[in-house]
Amino acid sequence: MLRTFESLGSLSGKRVVVRCDLNVPLSDGVITDDGRVRASLPTLNALLNQGARVVVISHLGRPKGAPDAQYSLAPVAQRLSELLGSPVTFAADTVGQGAQDAVAGLEDGQIAVLENLRFNPGETSKDGSERRAFAEQLAAFGDAFISDGFGVVHRKQASVYELATLLPSAAGTLISRELDVLERLTEKPERPYSVVLGGSKVSDKLGVIEHLLPRVDSLLIGGGMLFTFLAALGHKVGSSLLESDQIETVRRYLSAAEEKGVEIVLPVDVVVAASFSADAEHVVRDVDSIEDTEFGASGLGLDIGPRTAQAFANRIASSSTVFWNGPMGVFELAPFAAGTKAVAEALTTVDGLSVVGGGDSAAAVRALGFNDDQFGHISTGGGASLEFLEGKSLPGLEVLGWQQ
Ligand code: ADP
Ligand code: MG
């Protein structure tokens, strides 16, 4: 059983370290999607209302174990203060003098954000004793620990795993809510159940297919990974994203799906571009003639085509349970956003449970003008939700008492 934070008793007057996932997309220091900050509010508000002294820790981006100004959490602390409607102290380091002063200065019902965890090599070290040493420094700031960074629960990192072993610890409301939804996807989902996969991390996402095949009715493939599927069927894919070493695996999935009566729905057309840019020339081609354009073998498939988008939308709209991870195309460039938009639109019409998972997928639906409440749930964790669906053990949840 996952320990919920009510199990810690009253936290009034206590120092509570809260691991949030405030890893938001930034462009020139400006937050382009504050979804993860907003998702952290319920736990933080509950603690502040109880009169706890709240110490927020998080990572941002992938700095290399040392301070790097472009990954500072300062703009995030600022945004958090606006959303909370109250002051937030920002500490310019994570466990140094700045952090110590910030924590010591907290009064009941006040909150501080410490600088990026990943400015310290101990956070992501492969060496458990280094992680533990860093976690001990963090543990010194709290009387209790609340883990609420759902996006990182699949990582065995100091602030996710070791820290939880050093203090009385429990899950925050975001993690509880995320798990409720994911459990509905794995335990008796209402049928028909469709899963839509896209995005760019092809080999990362292939693993989930194996686990999902016996559980779903259809699997719709878009995004960068579709080209590995097309190549497995013998199609030429030009210069599109392709993982040749995964072609055999994909062939196995295709025949396993046929045996199990699961439909793997592949695109019938794609948008082929001359180059990777918003003003690139582009045309729609059937999947068997991707290289048959004026761009030849240098053509890049950057989105699913309109006939595919329509077919995917129909399939999604007639499902009772839908999980979607990974944009259908390079939605960041307007000419290649239509596939992603069509899929998002279809999810909003699902009569049942619709779940969007993944940092870029969540950012995509918001950038395309959708509201969070048009979906059943927008998960803050891409990798974490996929690994959950794969049935993998998630160290950051197990340390909180949870078992699959
Ligand atoms: P998520 O964060 O939702 O899990 P990913 O990180 O796997 O998703 O993938 C998101 C990225 O995939 C986006 O930046 C998008 O531009 C890219 N992408 C989608 N389709 C393609 C494609 N056909 N070629 C190259 N990149 C793609
Ligand atoms: Mg991503």
| Residue-averaged pLDDT | 95
Briefly note the structural class of the backbone: alpha/beta
What kind of oligomer do you see?
single chain
Distance between the termini: 9 Å
Overall outline: elongated
Residue ranges: pLDDT <50 for 5 or more in a row? Answer: none
Strand runs, count: 17
Helix content: 25-40%
The helix count comes to 14
**Main sheet: which strands, in order across?**
5-6-4-1-7-8
> Main β-sheet: number of strands, strand sense, barrel status?
6 strands, parallel
Q: Using the CA coordinates, give the radius of gyration.
A: 22 Å
Write the layout of secondary structure elements.
Elements: E1 15-19, E2 26-27, E3 30-31, H1 35-49, E4 53-57, H2 74-84, E5 89-90, H3 97-104, E6 111-113, H4 128-139, E7 144-147, H5 158-166, E8 169-171, H6 173-186, E9 193-197, H7 202-212, E10 218-221, H8 226-232, H9 247-260, E11 263-265, E12 269-273, E13 282-286, E14 300-304, H10 306-317, E15 321-325, H11 338-348, E16 353-357, H12 359-367, E17 377-379, H13 382-389, H14 395-398
Parallel strand pairs: 1-4, 1-7, 4-6, 5-6, 7-8, 9-10, 9-15, 10-11, 15-16, 16-17
Antiparallel strand pairs: 2-3, 12-13, 12-14
Helix pairs in contact: 1-2, 4-5, 7-13, 8-9, 10-11
Your description of this structure?
By secondary structure, this protein is α/β, with parallel strands linked by helices. It is built from 14 helices and 17 strands. The protein has helices at residues 35-49, 74-84, 97-104, 128-139, 158-166, 173-186, 202-212, 226-232, 247-260, 306-317, 338-348, 359-367, 382-389, 395-398, and strands at residues 15-19, 26-27, 30-31, 53-57, 89-90, 111-113, 144-147, 169-171, 193-197, 218-221, 263-265, 269-273, 282-286, 300-304, 321-325, 353-357, 377-379. The strands form four sheets. Strands 5-6-4-1-7-8 form a six-stranded parallel beta sheet, with helices on both faces. β12 and β13 form a beta hairpin. α1 packs across α2 (74-84) and α7 runs parallel beside α13 (382-389). It is elongated and about 65 Å long. It starts with 14 loop residues before the first strand and ends in a 6-residue tail after the last helix. The mean pLDDT is 95. The chain binds adenosine-5'-diphosphate and magnesium ion. Residues 358-360, 382 line the site of magnesium ion. Magnesium ion (MG) is lined by residues 358-360, 382.
